[in-house]
Amino acid sequence: MASSDVKPKSVSLAKKWSEEIENLYRFQQAGYRDETEYKQVKQVSMVDRWPETGYVKKLQRRDNTFYYYNKQRECDDKEVHKVKIYAY
């Protein structure tokens, strides 16, 4: 297995909102597990982020359309339990 083809060892569901969960929610909305998979697939070294909050600002989906995100929190409390946290 190549080092650029990293697979997760385990997965769990989020219980409580945090900044990490917010960013995972944004990656998963765009069709990726997390930042690691996004960087692998899109061959990018950096992700566009809001300087004020550090949240993901823009992601390119696999079909090459873009998702644009707000500066504020977008992952509602009712969505938190759907976010998957991958361990490598």
Automatic annotation (TrEMBL):
Pfam families: Meiosis_expr. The gene is MEIG1. It comes from the Eukaryota. Essential for spermiogenesis. It comes from Aotus nancymaae. One of its GO terms (cellular component) is manchette. GO terms for biological process: intracellular protein localization; manchette assembly; sperm axoneme assembly. This is Meiosis/spermiosis associated 1. Belongs to the MEIG1 family.
